[in-house]
């Protein structure tokens, strides 16, 4: 609880320090960036601390953190003073200043944002306290990053699983987690869970802010517009403001809680629906066989029940897309969505980037509204955006690449699209827009790289180009299971624009562009495949052999037939893309266009529609792309491309779906209003099935039954047993997974605690495979080990050459009876501590040489730590 409160107070401080900056940066947004202020504060604070420490201007300590906070405070002070030409302190401290006046007039918005953040942060913190495990999937890796950064004397932070090397991974989010842990005195094993909860809270308020802004742009502004410098910012009626603050809660609901259809299907499957139970004991189902999702195609467990209870049933929601090659071979595909990520609590970069990706969407919306509209000449380029806007956009996009490099494609495309649409709304279509887009994109890329240059200098990647997807079309049924809860409101909203709003559209051009893009991608995939087979005949022959095809012509015929048989998903995507693109390209008279010259955010009902359509188009492109092409990595399949692109599509589509549903709720009347409300209720029932049952499973019903039984036993137990029960209860609800380690393996916990406070040095520990308990000493202590998970280092660096003979050397270190051989290994890797615990004893350990030539730094019942003199 103390750690939770300290994190909450630090983030609150960051938010209030950053709000003057946000208020100045986002004059065209009705909420003036208030919902983004915490994220902006964390971004600027993290950037300054990382940059100063990387350049040697500060240390990786509390002093460096406070220096970065001071810089943030000075920037905030500058933002306040910039609102007053004279900039006197009396004006700054005037309670009737513009910022205070805005806060007073938007008190309902402020309260809603504050309550939402606290509720979301506390909710997921409680979820994590009910199941704080950090052993599954890649959580040990993430814990290692946090603890390694905490103990790194300098930046770039060292790689805890490859001694002598810095982290080669997009790790900005882990730096932020370590910053908060260091300032609050939180151990890394608790910071992991608190950071997961914090990202959930920041994502909730950021999504809320985006929808609030979109809804606010539709309302009449009766006095001064949101981009003016007068005191009546965003002054629309109380009635409109009240409705917007209430409706805006749908955005975090759709983004963070609504899930795909797999959870509802699990419920139907558990009830035995659509199964035929024969008298001979046979169980068959045409529906589940046709749907063909792993585990769901198998008969349900007997007896039937209401709640899914198959082992790891909740994991299946992230694996609904089923890829088979032409010979019937199966390829696993990852298709996560936000609530799965928070339920699983894998603090991976795609999760850490969520609030910053939403900030990038807010930046794109502000650019579209012309909030930074100013002529700028920089480095010989001429742009229609202010220097402040350009620099902050570069800081945001560059930070997003540092957080999760995959997200930069989506954020950059959205930003560039918003810039082009703003110019089109102002001056119309023309080839000049292409030149402006190229100029803006090049300069933005250059600045983004320059801002984060120290990161790129030490970064290597496994990505190695683009590969064609020839034989893996995604079935429509699987796409509907994945995105159905978002597609239904999106399609309903597009239908509303067509039938009710009579929104102008250019359907022919949109259809031509959509089909043209599809055939272009399809042709490009085959051209690329043909080129690869020419450049490497052996690779082409091997691929044909794997697909059980005699030649390329046969492969093309079979692949085309398979794609046509799975055409439902692509058709749905084309409907979404064509409809949204058609409305974007529709001609409107001047009275309906955004008046960007005078009032960027006033009387502009077209503005939120256009931006929402842009989100829909972007989501469709993200999902269509992997149907034909995917990024080449060490997996050799489209597993990662689907994973990353679908996740980003979920983010933009969820915001568009929330906006579309609000418009239907507000504007339909009579029977239409009843249908919309019933449909929303049904959608919530289906979409929230997975969170309800998933939370129950993952937290063991929040440990309530176990806790109640323990308390009853405590009341009737002898006094000398009560402390033991209290310790077990303490382990039930904790944000620090190390409490479980201490309870289940006290000897190892004691040894790890000793190392956490021991002088710095390289530690030797046993080496094992990924997703295992190997690497646990370095993960919990932050001390670098010679080698952690070998394949993950391969993934991060794209090569095994750096690892060399480390794994073999460490094995030799433990098993060899020859001290001279062991000493050479100790010297080669500058090892200070040799850890001998349970995993190290799996080998035919020869410990005698350590006893003879090394000092015992720590010892208990089952763990010995030797120190090299």
Keywords:
869 residues; 61% helix
Brief synopsis:
With 869 residues, the chain is mostly helical.
Describe this structure in words.
- The chain has 869 residues and is mainly α.
- Helix content is 61%, strand content 5%.
- The chain has 38 helices and 12 strands.
- The strands form 5 sheets. A 4-stranded mixed sheet has the order 9-10-12-11. A two-stranded antiparallel sheet has the order 1-2. A two-stranded antiparallel sheet has the order 3-4.
- A hairpin with a 5-residue loop joins strand 1 and strand 2 (283-284).
- Helix 18 packs antiparallel against helix 19.
- It is globular.
- The two termini are 42 Å apart.
- Residues 84-93, 220-238 and 590-603 have low confidence and may be disordered.
The shape is: globular
Write down how many β-strands occur, each being a DSSP E stretch of 2 or more residues.
Answer: 12
**Cα-based radius of gyration, to the nearest Å:** 29 Å
- Strand arrangement within the widest β-sheet reads 9-10-12-11
The largest sheet is: 4 strands, mixed
Residue fraction in strands: under 5%
Which stretches are poorly predicted, pLDDT < 50 over at least 5 residues?
84-93, 220-238, 590-603
